Amino acid sequence: MMRKKMIWSATAALFITMGVPIYKHGGPMDQSPIVKAQDIDAKGVAEAYLKEQAHALKLPQDLSGLSYVNTVQTEAGSYVRYQQTVNGYQVFGRQLAVTVDPSGKVTLAVSDYVPYTSVERVEDKLSKSQAESKAHKWIGDKGEGDWGTTKNTFGYVIQNGKAIPAYKVIVHAKAPFGAWETIVHAGTGKLMKKKDLNQKAMGSGQVFYPNPVESNGSASNLADNNDADSPELTAQLKTVALQGLDGSGTLTGDFVYVYSKAKTKNKSNVFRYTRSDDRFEDVMAYYHLDRLQRYIQSLGFTNINNRSITANVNTYKGDNSFYSPTKKDLTFGSGGVDDAEDAGVIAHEYGHSIQDNQVPGYGDSIEGGSMGEGFGDYLGAVYEDALSGNSFGRACVAEWDATSYSEGDPPCLRRLDENKVYPKDAVGEVHADGEIWSQPLYELASALGRDAATKIILQSHWSLTPNASFNDGARAIKQADELINRGKNGKLIDRIFNARGLATNK
After folding, report:
1. Which of 69, 72, 204, 441 could form a disulfide with 81 if both were Cys (CB 3.0 to 4.6 A apart)?
2. What is the Cα–Cα distance from 221 to 276, expressed in whole angstroms?
3. Angle at 52 (CA atoms; ends 48, 53), nearest 5 degrees
């Protein structure tokens, strides 16, 4: 490559070569040498500044409780770092960094320092091995061993003005796989903080969004044909981002682990298949389950089914899907239209998992089980509505799956507008009676919006028991609105649920 000829003006800056000094301005007529960052006592400058600004930064005047870590020097400036300490031990995650420019001026101070007024005393301190045992428990270690060295450090955490002794334990577990940081109280062993240290990968895949009947706006010209591709079905595919993958090249992530005979794997985390490939259903299950959990968390709930749920795909040939309350996993059947090809079915089954997570053993009576089916239909219907963004398929769930057993356009697994009234329309079968419950939930979402209604419904589940009745559920809905919204929707809730024959008052 031809090099450009360099032309220098009379006032060009002199650059250092072979030991020739660098000058700050102009050319050789200006003999003021540049001050290098390395020539500055950055640590001394930083400490003088911190003492001067101690009150503003809420530091001790003598800087006690700050331990010098290091100074990083670059041509642009120096960076002096300190660690907050208590009794000579680090306060986890609390540091202070001072930026000093080459002229010796402090240009920035960023402080995590937290003042405290007392130090908690622990009479019976856990040993390191005891703290590690607690850490394994708190991450849900399944006992399959470690893949790396466990790191254990004693220090402090400051909460509500008190310095609390604790262990920071980093566990490298095989199940759940990855590196996990836990902060464990040094006396009680109580979990104070848990953090997933694994770097998550972002992948991509192709899915139905939410199913081809909804996105197409009609069931005409769409047929299963034993998983065969067709131009009409392929046209309904949408490329989506797959979040939270663990980087292993499998469909394993924060909230979903797909177990499948297809053994889907791609080191580049690109999972783009058409429905004639069994791996397509794996991607569908991962994407929609992950999205549902992220949606729940967006409503402010980080304690509802916040785990990596196993989704068994292409492992069961029946035309049915189910949640196992003993194994805590989901199974999607491949009979008829593969159930995992329909986001409505996926959401419905996830609804059972949600309720079991909130109320273990939920649905132990006919009415409790009916509310479980009704909530699953509600979750599937509003999820489909949100993804499709059109009016087609409203009050109908699992349109694509239903093409194998239901006529009509759209075909429906079940509807949420059958106008059933309790108790005269109750028949003692949970799926049929679930339509008594799904309709008022769906009407609540139509009136308040999906987010507001779902938040109330999820909140209400904690008030219930495994044998709760329809009326218990209706009263819990109204009570949840009292807690969340100070009861501003009370009259609306009365009207909607009373129309279905359900009592909302105590």
Report:
1. 69
2. 17
3. 115
The total domain count for the chain is: 3
Which residue range is the domain that position 108 belongs to? 38-114
SS3 content of the chain, % helix, strand, coil (to 5): 30, 25, 45
- The pLDDT tens digits for 48-98 are 999 999 999 999 999 999 999 999 888 888 999 999 999 999 999 999 999
- For 153-177, letters b (16+ CB in 10 Å) and e give eebbbbeeeebbbbbbbbbbbeebb
End-of-domain residue from the set 114, 144, 166: 114
Residue 349, token pair as written in the block: 């089954």
Any idea how long the chain is?
Answer: 506
Phi, psi of 189 (to 5 degrees): 80, 5
Q: How many Cβ atoms sit within 10 Å of the Cβ of residue 6?
A: 6
pLDDT tens profile 143-191: 777 666 678 999 999 999 999 999 999 988 777 767 789 999 999 999 9
Helix (H) or strand (E) holding 216: helix 212-216
Question: In the block, which residue shows the tokens 């749920």?
Answer: 309
Q: Are residues 265 and 155 in the same domain?
A: no
- The predicted model scores a pTM of 0.68
Q: Which pLDDT score is estimated for 290?
A: 98
Task: Tell me the residue type at 434.
Answer: G
Residue 343 shares a structural domain with residue 398: yes
In a shared domain, residues 185 and 205: no
Q: What is the 3-state secondary structure (H, E, C) of 357-393?
A: HHCCCCCCCHHHHHHHHHHHHHHHHHHHHHHHCCCCC
Q: What is the DSSP string of 19-78?
A: TPPPBSSSSTT---BPPPGGGS-HHHHHHHHHHHTHHHHT--TT-TTEEEEEEEE-SS-E
